[in-house]
Design a protein that fits this description.
This protein has 234 residues and is an alpha/beta fold. The chain has helices spanning 15-19, 44-49, 51-66, 72-79, 96-100, 158-166, 219-231; strands spanning 8-13, 85-90, 105-107, 110-117, 124-126, 144-148, 170-174, 195-199, 212-215. The strands form 2 sheets. A 6-stranded parallel beta sheet has the order 3-2-1-7-8-9, with helices on both faces. Strands 5-4-6 form a 3-stranded antiparallel beta sheet. The radius of gyration is 19 Å and the shape is globular. It starts with 7 loop residues before the first strand and ends with a helix.
Amino acid sequence: MILRERKKIYVLTGAGMSAESGIMTFRDMGGLWQQYNIEEVASPVAWRNNQELVLRFYNQRRKQLMECQPNDGHLILAQLEKHFDITIVTQNVDNLHERAGSTSVLHLHGELMKARSTGNPGYITTLDYWELKSGDLCPEGFQLRPHIVWFGEDVPEFTNACQLMEGADIVVVVGTSLSVYPAAGLMRYIPQNAAVYLIDPVCPAGIDTTVVHHIAMPASAGIKKLSEILLQHI
């Protein structure tokens, strides 16, 4: 008996993927943060000018994340690994894909539950608590900072994300408007013969629906529908 090679599915997820788990956006967090632009708490300049403010911002996000759970969309994607070779490339900094059981997740913009050394970028540690403070140091004595790609910084995983896209049989885009670069640039690397599915209640401008299969649903419902479609063709 000849075993068929499992199809490679590349899933690109954005903020809409995590919204159903209760992950709030910057503006949704309200309170103190209404006084600031995102660049004032998420950039190297912000870190140099007001380290305490930046730490407080990410501490609140981390605390919130620890109170949230993966939603049905996260869980279905993890279950699909039984049948497909799935790689998830996410613009989100939460760990909900991993907590749902997905085993191959690449974070374009960093990871909220990790910190790295300001003096040795190769030193990255996983946090099991929400509060990172001034004075929390790496073994070499440098301050730890959020392991997040800030505005004005390079996206080190972008090349890997492009290479993974080039090997995909099926591409799925969930919960992103495709308007934010560099993630939006990944679409240029979709193989010519790959099937492409877009899951979003509204189809972004410029998407050719004669080529892209648009599932006009929120993330979890759309992923459930996609799962039904894919499993029919195994």
